[in-house]
């Protein structure tokens, strides 16, 4: 979707900045279903994102009057053994360091990531939103049955179709945090030198475990532990208001007041939901449990100066369902931000 036409659409809908995904999540096609076979697809082994590739993306974004603010999510083929503590971990860490250095040289200021093995899993599409608009939801009762993660797979993507049969087994919280802390201690100094901020996304769905693997940030206070591993402006947060709202202890406004004044928030995902884990569904930005205007006002009050993106959105009934949903969300956010600025 990284095309001049889509950049132009974003600009026309009021966007000023782009957060780009270079991972092709659906490159192997999607296997639909609600049983243990459900996953997103196959990630093809590919070279690290090159400096010319990143420069070309930035130039294409700039050509449409937009700013490239961040790249979001490492490709599973680039860091599966960092997540799994596998034999190629050291090699893959060197690759991640090189990606960050290239981003710094090109002038892309933020790398968003989600240190998770199970990834975003278990969502089922249904007419959850106003007027029967289709959106995703999570249900421990009616959703997919949790099964162990097969070998050769992370983040719902198969990086090794020829992996031996069996599953990766249990991953405990202690193991996951150990892997994460090693990752941060190695990568943050490189990010500092490159002038790039690493921005960590919270878990979605925000559950303590998923598919026999621990989750890293499934309550707002766990962001505190994450920031404490390597205190640095380069160790920051990809602040997802929807995921925070879904958490059992998810007070979004308190979380903004806790982390915003410390300049810990790199950028913000803004979507709305109804319910909390283990039962929630995504809805239009103006109809969920989150008071989006209050959240934006709180961000303003704590001095947040970064980018807010619409994140997910229900699909609207027309010839361009995703584009219409995003235009609605962008228009709502733009109007809310302008009104908050006007009243400040």
Structural topology:
Blueprint: H1 4-12, E1 17-20, E2 41-42, H2 51-63, E3 67-72, H3 76-84, H4 89-106, E4 110-113, E5 124-129, E6 133-139, E7 153-154, E8 157-158, H5 173-194, E9 197-200, E10 209-210, E11 213-214, H6 222-229, E12 235-240, H7 241-246, H8 252-259, E13 265-269, E14 272-276, E15 279-283, H9 292-301, E16 307-309, H10 321-343
Parallel strand pairs: 1-3, 2-8, 3-4, 4-9, 9-12, 12-13, 13-16
Antiparallel strand pairs: 5-6, 6-15, 7-8, 10-11, 14-15
Helix pairs in contact: 2-4, 3-4, 4-5, 8-9, 9-10
List its traits.
344 residues, alpha/beta, TIM Barrel, four-stranded antiparallel β-sheet, 37% helix
Summary of the model, kept short:
With 344 residues, this protein is an alpha/beta fold. The chain has helices at residues 4-12, 51-63, 76-84, 89-106, 173-194, 222-229, 241-246, 252-259, 292-301, 321-343; strands at residues 17-20, 41-42, 67-72, 110-113, 124-129, 133-139, 153-154, 157-158, 197-200, 209-210, 213-214, 235-240, 265-269, 272-276, 279-283, 307-309. The protein has a single domain (4-343), classed as Divalent-metal-dependent TIM barrel enzymes (TIM Barrel, Alpha-Beta Barrel), CATH 3.20.20.150.
């Amino acid at each position: 979707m990284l095309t001049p036409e889509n950049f132009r659409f974003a600009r026309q809908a009021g966007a000023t900045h782009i957060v780009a995904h270079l991972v092709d999540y659906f490159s192997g096609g999607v296997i639909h279903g609600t049983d243990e076979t459900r996953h997103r697809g196959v990630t093809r082994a590919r070279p690290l994102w090159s400096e010319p590739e990143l420069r070309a993306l930035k130039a294409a974004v700039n050509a449409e009057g937009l700013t490239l603010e961040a790249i979001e999510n490492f490709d599973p083929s680039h860091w599966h053994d960092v997540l799994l503590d596998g034999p190629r971990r050291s090699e893959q860490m060197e690759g991640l360091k090189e990606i960050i250095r290239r981003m710094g040289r090109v002038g892309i200021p933020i790398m968003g990531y989600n240190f998770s093995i199970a990834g975003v899993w278990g969502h089922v599409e249904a007419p959850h939103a106003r007027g029967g608009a289709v959106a995703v939801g999570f249900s421990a009762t009616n959703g997919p049955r949790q099964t162990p993660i097969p070998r050769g797979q992370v983040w719902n993507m198969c990086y090794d179709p020829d992996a031996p049969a069996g599953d990766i087994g249990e991953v405990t919280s202690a193991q996951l945090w150990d892997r994460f802390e090693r990752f941060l201690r190695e990568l943050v100094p490189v990010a500092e030198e490159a002038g790039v901020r690493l921005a960590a996304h919270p878990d979605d769905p925000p559950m303590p475990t998923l598919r026999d693997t621990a989750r890293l940030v499934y309550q707002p206070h766990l962001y505190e532990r994450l920031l404490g591993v390597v205190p640095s402006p380069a160790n920051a947060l990809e602040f997802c208001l929807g995921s925070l709202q879904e958490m059992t202890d998810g007070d979004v406004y308190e979380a903004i007041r806790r982390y915003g004044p410390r300049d810990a928030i790199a950028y913000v995902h803004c979507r709305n939901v109804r319910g909390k884990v283990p039962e929630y569904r995504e809805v239009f930005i103006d109809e969920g449990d989150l008071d989006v205007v209050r959240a934006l006002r709180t961000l303003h009050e704590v001095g947040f100066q970064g980018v807010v993106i619409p994140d997910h959105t229900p699909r609207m009934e027309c010839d361009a369902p995703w584009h219409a949903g995003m235009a609605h969300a962008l228009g709502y956010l733009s109007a809310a931000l302008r009104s908050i600025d006007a009243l400040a």
